[in-house]
Every structure is written in structure tokens, then in C-alpha cells.
Amino acid sequence: MGRTPPHPEVSQFGLQQVLEALVDPVRRSIVTQLDAAGADIKCGAFDMAVSKSTATHHFKVLREAGLIRQHYVGTSRMNTLRRAEMDEAFPGLLDALTSPQAQAR
To answer: What confidence score (pLDDT) does residue 102 get?
Structure first.
């Protein structure tokens, strides 16, 4: 487990923390890109116009809120959307965020 950062359990998800994580457009973009891909994405493969250190901060906020899970494959830190867990804790939240109507706004 050494290199895998800690992740909250579903019982630890807090709506306030999740909403605060999703208020930022860069973090919403990370979530929607993961949802659209339907697969793990390495940190450097996201379409983001921010520095590497800023991107690292955004990934940490999302991970600590429980929205993503991070793990290593070789030297790449991979990101997974925790959709099933989020749907269990807050049904419909990610659907509302990733719907075509939400993307158009």
C-alpha cells in the first residue's frame, strides 16, 4: 500500500466536502472527463490548463472528498471515478453533474 494515498470510506463521505470539491470548474472537469472515459486516466492525460502543482492540489481535494480513487501503475498515478460509491452516498449527484444539460452551462 506504501505509495497509494489514503481514501475515505463511503461512511465518511460528507456532502459539504463533496460540494466544496465540485464547486471548482477544474475539479468538475476532472470528474466529467473520468465519467466520459469510463476508465482510469493518469494525472498527466487530463485536459487542464493549470500547472502540475495546481493539478496535484485538485486531485488531492477530489480524493479527500471521496470522488476519486488514486493508485499507481508503474510510475503513473491513475485516477478512477468512484461513481458507485458516490451514487450510494448521494444518489443522482454525479448524474446531475455529468448530464448533457449540466455540460452546456
So the answer is: 65
User: What is the arithmetic mean of pLDDT over 91-101?
Assistant: 89
* CA 65 vs CA 2, 8, 101, 104: distances in Å: 21, 7, 24, 25
pTM: 0.90
Euclidean distance between CA atoms 3 and 33, whole angstroms: 24
The residues, ordered by sequence, that sit 6+ positions from 12 with a Cβ below 8 Å of its Cβ are: 66
Are the beta carbons of 79 and 40 closer than 8 angstroms?
yes
Helix axis angle, 25-37 relative to 15-22, nearest 10°?
Answer: 100
Backbone torsions φ then ψ of 70, nearest 5 degrees: -120, 140
